[in-house]
Amino acid sequence: xxxxxITVAALARELKDKLTDxxxxxxxxxxxxxxxxxxxxxxxQRRLYISASASLPLIYLTEExxxxxxxxxxxxxxxxxxxxxxxxxxxxxPGLERIICIHIEHLDEMGDLCRKKLIVEIMxxxxxxxxxxxxxxxxxxxxxxxxxxxxxxxxLPGRHYFIPDTMxxxxxxxxxxxxxxxxxxxxxxxxxxxxxxxxxxxxPVTAEEICFLAGIDSRMTAKDLSGDVLLxxxxxxxxxxxxxxxxxxxxxxxxxxxxxxxxxCLPLSRYNSCEHRESDSVSSLLSTYYAEKNTVTRIRQKSVxxxxxxxxxxxxxxxxxxxxxxxxADTSGRDKYKVFGELINVYGYNLEPGEGSLEAxxxxxxxxxxxxxxATKTPQENAQRYFAKYNKQKRxxxxxxxxxxxxxxxxxxxxxxxxxxxxxxDEDDLAQIKEELTESGYIRRRFTKKKVKLKSRPFxxxxxxxxxxxxxxxxxxxxxxxxxxxSGNDWWFHAKGAPGSHVIVKSxxxxxxxxxxEEAGRLAAYYSKNHGNDKxxxxxxxxxxxxxxxxxxxxxxxxxxxxxxxxxSDISSLTLLES
Length: 579
What we know:
Blueprint: H1 5-19, E1 23-28, E2 34-41, E3 44-51, E4 58-62, H2 74-83, E5 87-92, E6 99-107, E7 113-121, E8 128-133, E9 138-141, H3 177-185, H4 191-198, H5 204-214, H6 227-245, E10 252-256, E11 259-264, E12 275-278, H7 282-302, H8 304-329, H9 334-347, E13 357-362, E14 367-372, H10 379-423, H11 427-439, E15 459-462, E16 468-471, H12 475-485, E17 491-495, E18 503-505, H13 514-526, E19 536-542, E20 547-548, E21 557-558, E22 563-567, E23 575-577
Antiparallel strand pairs: 1-2, 2-3, 3-4, 5-6, 6-7, 7-8, 8-9, 10-11, 10-12, 13-14, 15-16, 15-23, 16-18, 17-18, 17-19, 19-22, 20-21
């Protein structure tokens, strides 16, 4: 999610509560665009991390320290001179802008009381940290912006500080119903986009959430909506933002396949089906979210080669499947050639030499049929020609049927590997998938024929009733769980007709409660390609009825007389244990 005005509002409130009246003890500049302020408060020492990085601007409280350069940069020295040992008197946010203003009080060289502002702008590539006096005159900034760099605003010492209004956005906290409708109606674009481009601090995710709560398709334009519907949308807009006015912040991170998908400081009903974890502070949410996001990004980067191999093989097999299916369709009329041959043998005795066709009664359906003939051949030769054509297409049909099954199995297998890559969390998971692809012949083993020592382990969940549930991360683990780990009376779950993980519920010698079956079904839905659907069909059966197909790839099974359930993929109530 974007670091929007709502997140900044929640963060500003948190910083105000925790840092007001604190004294700035240390000022460090670990990187060219970062600051680390150590503040002594009545509750102890706190560190405030501020980054104006173009790629990842952030501000939050942290426990971590960072090593500083031996020689402090000029901006850091300036801050030490002016606000070292200064007292933080207030922390504010102008409107719903992505700006946090830290008000600081300090004594100058003459012992006079002075006031300064450290303004943090969280604005993507335009992010900055600007140091101003009490009259909003810029003393210095961590990034200098000249007139050659920006025609909107210079950020240089001696210039007056102001917030640029380049988007002509309205403050959402004070907009009237009429102004709301006029703003949306004036923009010939989807209503979701019209909301976030018209009002300050509203991100696309928030706009989509407001439309979702109002029951409106965000892809429709405002002109497609009646006045009553626009009023209803406005009411939902204000109800949602009332949570912000009342400071009812609930920092939460939403996960998909165990990976961080979105974060928010107000609940996002659109993601109720996702696993979600609440945080006790905005700072802890941001630090955890971006740390996990960085881990995911690193794993994604490391899995690029494997994804390319799988995707290339998938595309090749899908093209092959389409071609084989078309060729198979060409053999669908083969039986008529057999009938032609039989009818010629039965009725062709009275044909005159040189005739180009034969009209005869088809005794299979009691209808007259006209059979084309080669006038240069005898009836017997014509019959043999049709029998040969029938036999050729029959052989083609049989061969293609086998090839199509093999190609279909390859596609199913590769889709299961693709699903395994989606849920991989660390390098051990990737190593196991790579070994699987190597054994399957998609990757050549180099340098050594020894197998890689695999450390990845299945997910281990605990149900609400205390039953242990295990989820395979890939086909190797699916195979191990189903045929080596599970006992006969344990329960086996899998998404019907979709690539996904095997889920094993340890039965503990009895029949688990219904709630356990539902939770295991949710796990099977969550760790499948159908994840995110409101309804996912799940097959489940006792493990003793699950059989492995001879010669099949790891994780491929057959079963009969199974049970089925339809369920969502919300696993937020389940506890993930350490493997």
